[in-house]
Design goal:
The chain is 32% helix and 14% strand. By secondary structure, the protein is of the alpha/beta class.
Length: 350
């Protein structure tokens, strides 16, 4: 186990990969010529060239089409459910997830080929269904921006969920999409307290910058909502009313939430993180999470997994519902216009 806290990273360990039969260990450090992990690990970028980029998500409680320009995420959110998917690439769900990033540089070209297929039917596609499409690497690679250009060219609706104010760079394209009712933007906000936000999601934008981005989009008539997620009892649950008020004041039109769940290797990573970050309440937080998931920290039951169950989950639900009614009233996100799709990318005479 890593003894020294690694600043700027969420996970503090690299747990074993369940798909690999062997792993590197440093049990006898005096026998190594060089340490396996010295200080903060550097980010490595790998490139993938898939034949298709639109993926169908078809669960009983979640149905959508999504695109993930990146796998792995430098944001380092300790609770991220996407960590487990990094094991399919032969990496760890821990530090590897934050430092070994897989990018898809041809994503826009592949998306265009899928839009050109006769089988394509106009439907909303979500960017960041798994990992953040505006993570730090996007500033350099601009894969997400190139995807948005394709969505605008073909007039296909798109939704975005991000934790990064980098999205404001693309306000020009988003404004054009919004004018056609083809875009929804969502910001994930966990806490208004910077000391809490920094340890929950080290490399995301500050909440102040997210709220300013919401204001910018609201002024440009780009529909914005927030996800107050995940709610972690005894860490950020008490902030629900103020988070919703701040987002509403900034111009957000809608709000949602999920409670924390720690599936797969995320449980091991989060347990280690809790003990190092909140030693005074680590056990309390752990037991409260268990209370929401029938005595476990993980939950895979459809319909219950994201909302939780039991007294703690009910309290969170009631607090969110009352706060949403108070600060959002009857506000809604606009309907997508599915009739504008340009087959071939151009106006059609017939």
């Amino acid at each position: 186990m890593q003894d020294e806290y690694i600043k700027g990273k969420g996970a503090q360990i690299n747990p074993s990969n369940k798909f690999l039969s062997q792993r590197l260990l440093a049990e006898h450090i005096e026998g190594l010529d060089e340490p396996l992990l010295e200080g903060k690990p550097k980010t490595q970028v790998f490139f993938e060239h898939p034949k298709k980029v639109v993926n169908k998500v078809d669960y009983p409680d979640l149905k959508m089409l999504s695109i993930n320009p990146y796998q792995g995420c430098e944001h380092g959110c300790i609770y991220c459910y996407a960590r487990n998917s990094h094991e399919y690439y032969g990496f760890s769900a821990g530090l590897d997830f934050e430092t070994k990033i897989i990018a898809k540089p041809d994503a826009a070209k592949v998306l265009e080929s899928q839009f050109l297929a006769r089988s394509w039917r106009s439907a909303p596609v979500m960017l960041s269904g798994n990992t953040d499409c505006y993570q730090p690497l996007e500033k350099k690679l601009k894969i997400t921006r190139s995807l948005l250009k394709v969505f605008l060219k073909y007039r296909n609706p798109v939704s975005i969920l991000t934790k990064n104010a980098l999205i404001t760079r693309d306000v020009d394209i988003l404004k054009d999409l919004a004018g056609l009712n083809l875009v929804h933007v969502g910001f994930s906000i966990t806490s208004l307290q910077e000391d809490i936000r920094r340890v929950l999601e080290p490399r995301t934008a500050s909440t102040v910058r997210k709220l300013k981005a919401i204001e910018l989009f609201s002024k440009n008539n780009i529909p914005v909502m927030i996800m107050n997620a995940p709610i972690i009892p005894a860490i950020n649950h008490h902030e629900i009313p103020q988070v919703l008020k701040s987002a509403s004041d900034a111009g957000a039109r809608q709000a949602g939430y999920t409670v924390v769940r720690l599936n797969g290797k995320i449980a091991e990573i989060a347990r280690d993180w809790l003990q190092k970050t909140f030693p005074d309440r680590a056990d309390k937080v752990w037991h409260l999470i268990q209370d929401m998931h029938d005595g476990k920290v993980n939950d895979t039951e459809w319909g219950r997994r994201m909302a939780g169950d039991g007294n703690i989950a009910d309290m969170i639900h009631q607090l969110f519902t009352v706060s949403k009614r108070k600060y959002f009233g009857s506000r809604t996100m606009p309907e997508y216009d599915l009739k504008l799709f340009r087959r071939g990318g151009n106006y059609q005479l017939f």
